[in-house]
Design brief:
Layout (H helix, E strand, L loop, with lengths): L1 H16 L3 H14 L4 E8 L4 E8 L10 E3 L3 H9 L3 E3 L21 E9 L2 E10 L7 H25 L6 H9 L15 E3 L1 E4 L2 E9 L1 H10 L8 H25 L4 H4 L1 H8 L1 H12 L4 H17 L4 H22 L12 E4 L4 H9 L4 E4 L6 H9 L4 E3 L13 E5 L4 E4 L3 H20 L6 E2 L5 E8 L2 H9 L4 E6 L2 H4 L7 H14 L4 E5 L27 H7 L1 H14 L5 E5 L5 H20 L8 E6 L8 H7 L2 E4 L1 H8 L18 H17 L2 E4 L10 H6 L4 E4 L4 H9 L3 H12 L4 H19 L3
Parallel strand pairs: 9-10, 10-11, 11-12, 16-17, 16-23, 17-18, 18-19, 19-20, 20-21, 21-22
Antiparallel strand pairs: 1-2, 1-6, 2-3, 4-5, 5-6, 7-14, 8-12, 9-13, 13-14, 15-16
Helix pairs in contact: 1-2, 1-4, 1-28, 2-4, 4-28, 6-12, 7-12, 7-13, 9-12, 10-11, 11-12, 16-18, 18-20, 19-20, 20-21, 22-24, 26-28, 27-28
Bound molecules: phosphoenolpyruvate and magnesium ion.
Length: 766
């Protein structure tokens, strides 16, 4: 029990003291007390010197902190980290790796236990406890200390980064994280410095920094003086060059993102071809302004007009105009446009639009660092679809990194390192090799089974057609969630029925023979369509005109979408799903319209059939009457992302309350179990398609309450398969039951803390 309590205390502590020196001191005190050890020490691995440095101790001479340094493999502690296994030694001096360090007063404490602290394949440090020889440690102690080390890994990784010898002024750095963006101007990022942020799309990347500041380039172009000798011929050839560049870019994107490619640069090309625009520029050149100035002057009148507009659709055009102007002026004066980042580079930008992200991905950039605010979730989802690591660092100094400086992005820890050392780069390359190997091994496995042979279907969440290749390559059993809103979001008007038909047809063709669930439009909340305005700005868009509410309020748009889905589904068994259903009446209404569309199409001679019709379970109001939904719907899919935010009233996109967004809240757990039980009773097909479906800490719970279908973003397919292969059904059921018995967050943490580390070890690839 003592051990259990210890683990739980760490859960609380790491939140409180993350990264600070006080955390390490508290940690050693707590471990020593709970394990009844005379000595407890934490060593942290310093990548630069490739040494383990004693960073906190209780029981050894305090002045040895920072002074005692061991090479990898040196001493029992170094041997534990090098071998990545615990070392339990009755008499320390008898161990072959024992190293006597004079002046630290450890001679009396010969009973020794050291465990490595690792995260993935990264070596973070080691934890050691010592006692007098009469009371040696046993296997249980070793197990408990490993659990602690595993819990501490993340917090210690942060501590290590903050305390890194090369690190600059720590307090400034910590402040940098909290300080509003404006306040940080004037300070520059230093070589070796690490920035901590929020991961929007996981993954790692290393490459030369490329600053993408369209706004900044525009401003500097607008301020400059230009040679008036640039004339009509320069302007005309720049227009042609810009058109060629945009068309080439469009063609590149087309390959990867055929559903949205043609829509991205349409506005840009229209501006270039607009006779009013070119006519005014030419008139300016005739007056003797010089081509660059003439372009900028005409642009500024357009910009003023657009910026003053009430309509967000027109306002959005400001960005398009600026983008075109930057390209055009750049071509006139022979300076390449800002967006042309090199493949493999890490782009640092103040802000991005979804279309920018698509463009950067098409250009083959390795990763993106964003400097402004929270990642709206559709931008993160898009980045995940594009398998483009994206970290948000709220520190303006990120923008001062010199172009070409090597940046290392670690999406797992939300860290960006400027000019990392060779050791860090080597570790990055090693990690990437492990992941690639894992990916190569997992596809081709027909059914995913738990340890005891229970089959679990793993489907893919698809946002863009580009996800489909990855999903098939990684062996998804079908598509559990197609988020149909993405082609709507990236363009500048509603797609027609025919345009939607083209997208859905491609999607179904690429997944032929496998189950595909198409979700109807889930716009609203943070998924805003810039071209749709109904004059009223919503104070609470997440509680507003979202999803199925929008569709039922705009039946023409809804019918067009459903018709396109049904037409694409001719000859295939498709499933149509409604998002955000909050009352049975809504579900029945949506279903009636869908079945009307089937009849209508049949009258038109289209051989479509009634699809399976289901709904997302993501609004808490459906929970008390879930039986009625389970009886009516052909299938249910739990949208845990929204379900959690609505159930515990925590905005999923607000980073101020991110720490309160806890999927393991007892109310969430019991709600999930309620839905699973009801679906089982009615024989209704059930899946989970929110983020919980790919999170290692919750998958056992989901399996334990009876969920047999998970739908995850393709990025996570191999990992989830590997995770499931390590789950024992009976154990998962027992764990779920225990979790469901808890009424406080702390109780659940305690249950999970104990199981979590063991599960991770099992699931970790060899
Ligand atoms: C969810 O809410 O869990 C979900 C899968 O839908 P989305 O993330 O698109 O809102
Ligand atoms: Mg949702």
């Amino acid at each position: 029990m003592d051990h259990l309590r210890l683990i739980c205390d760490f859960g609380e502590m790491s939140g409180l003291f993350m990264g600070s020196r006080a955390f390490l001191d508290k940690a050693v005190q707590m471990v020593a007390r709970r394990m009844r050890a005379a000595v407890c020490s934490i060593y942290i691995y310093d990548e630069e010197s490739e040494q383990l440095v004693l960073r906190a101790t209780i029981g050894l001479e305090p002045s040895s902190v920072g002074r005692v340094r061991l090479a990898m493999g040196e001493g029992i502690v170094g041997a534990a980290l090098e071998g990545r296994r615990p070392i339990l030694q009755r008499v320390a001096s008898e161990h072959p790796s024992f190293k006597s360090v004079p002046g630290i007063e450890e001679e009396r404490y010969e009973a020794f236990l050291a465990v490595p602290i690792t995260r993935g394949i990264a070596s973070i440090g080691a934890l050691a406890v010592q006692r007098e020889v009469a009371t040696p440690f046993d296997e249980d102690d070793a197990l408990a200390l490993r659990a602690v080390a595993s819990q501490l890994a993340n917090a210690l990784e942060n501590a290590r980064l903050l305390m890194d010898a090369k690190g600059a002024d720590k307090s400034a750095r910590r402040e940098g994280q909290r300080r509003p963006l404006r306040g940080a101007r004037g300070q520059r990022a230093r070589a070796g410095e690490r920035f901590f942020g929020q991961t929007a799309a996981e993954g790692q990347a290393a490459g030369p920094a490329a600053l993408f500041d369209r706004e900044g380039v525009y401003e500097s172009f607008a301020r400059r003086t230009y040679d008036r000798a640039y004339g009509r011929a320069d302007f005309e050839s720049a227009v042609l060059a810009t058109e060629r560049q945009l068309e080439a870019l469009q063609a590149k994107v087309e390959d990867k993102l055929s559903d949205v490619a043609s829509l991205i640069f349409t506005a840009h090309l229209l501006i270039l071809k607009d006779p009013e625009f070119t006519g005014r520029v030419l008139a300016g050149i005739e007056r003797g302004d010089g081509a660059p100035r003439a372009v900028l002057q005409v642009a500024s009148t357009y910009l003023q007009r657009f910026a003053a507009s009430e309509s967000p659709y027109v306002k959005d055009k400001v960005q398009d105009v600026k983008d075109v102007v930057v390209r055009l002026v750049g071509n006139i004066i022979g300076q390449s446009p800002a967006i042309d980042s090199q493949p493999g580079s890490v782009v640092v930008a103040r802000e991005l639009y979804p279309s920018d992200l698509l463009e950067l991905s098409a250009l083959g950039v390795a990763g993106v660092v964003l400097v402004t605010g929270g990642a709206s979730s559709h931008l993160s989802i898009l980045a995940r679809s594009l398998v483009l690591p994206l970290i948000i660092v709220r520190d303006e100094r990120m923008l001062t990194v010199a172009e070409g400086t090597t940046l290392l992005l670690d999406g797992g820890g939300g860290v960006v390192q400027v000019n990392p050392g060779e050791t860090a780069l080597r570790s990055f390359r090693d990690q990437r090799a492990v992941l690639e190997d894992l990916e190569r091994r997992v596809p081709g496995q027909p059914v995913t089974r738990t340890l005891d042979g229970t089959g679990i279907r793993i489907l893919a969440n698809v946002n863009l057609l580009s996800d489909v290749d990855l999903a098939t390559h990684r062996g998804a059993d079908g598509i559990g969630l197609y988020r149909s809103e993405f082609p709507f979001i990236v363009r500048s008007d509603f797609p027609t029925e025919e345009e939607q038909l083209a997208v859905y047809t491609q999607l179904l063709a690429r997944f032929s023979g496998r189950e595909v669930t198409l979700r109807t439009l889930d716009m609203g909340g943070d998924k805003v369509l810039s071209y749709f305005t109904d004059d009223t700005r919503e104070a609470n868009p997440f509680l507003g005109m979202r999803s199925i509410r929008f569709s039922l309020r705009n039946p023409d748009i809804f019918r067009q979408q459903v018709r396109a889905m049904l037409r694409a589904g001719v000859g295939r068994a498709i499933r149509i799903m409604f998002p955000m259903v909050s009352a049975l009446d809504e579900f029945l209404h949506g279903r009636r319209i869908t079945l009307d569309c089937v009849e209508e199409l049949q009258r038109e001679g289209v051989a479509c059939e009634a699809p399976a019709i289901g709904m997302m379970v993501e609004v808490p109001s459906v929970l008390p009457i879930i039986d009625a939904f389970a009886a009516e719907a052909d299938f249910l899919s739990i949208g845990s992302n929204d379900l959690i935010q609505y159930l515990i009233a925590v905005d999923r996109t607000n980073d101020k309350v991110a720490d309160l967004y806890r999927p393991y809240h007892p109310a969430v757990l019991r709600s999930l179990s309620l839905v699973a039980a009801s679906a089982a009773e009615h024989g209704t097909d059930l899946s989970v398609c929110g983020d919980m479906a790919h999170q290692a800490e919750y998958v056992p719970f989901l399996i334990g309450i009876g969920v047999r279908t998970l739908s995850v973003e393709p990025l996570y397919l191999p990992r989830v398969r590997a995770l499931i292969a390590g789950i024992d059904l009976q154990e998962a059921e027992a764990e779920a039951e225990e979790m469901l018995g808890c009424t406080t967050l702390t109780d659940v943490e305690e249950v999970m803390g104990e199981r979590l580390w063991a599960r991770r070890e099992e699931a970790e690839p060899a």
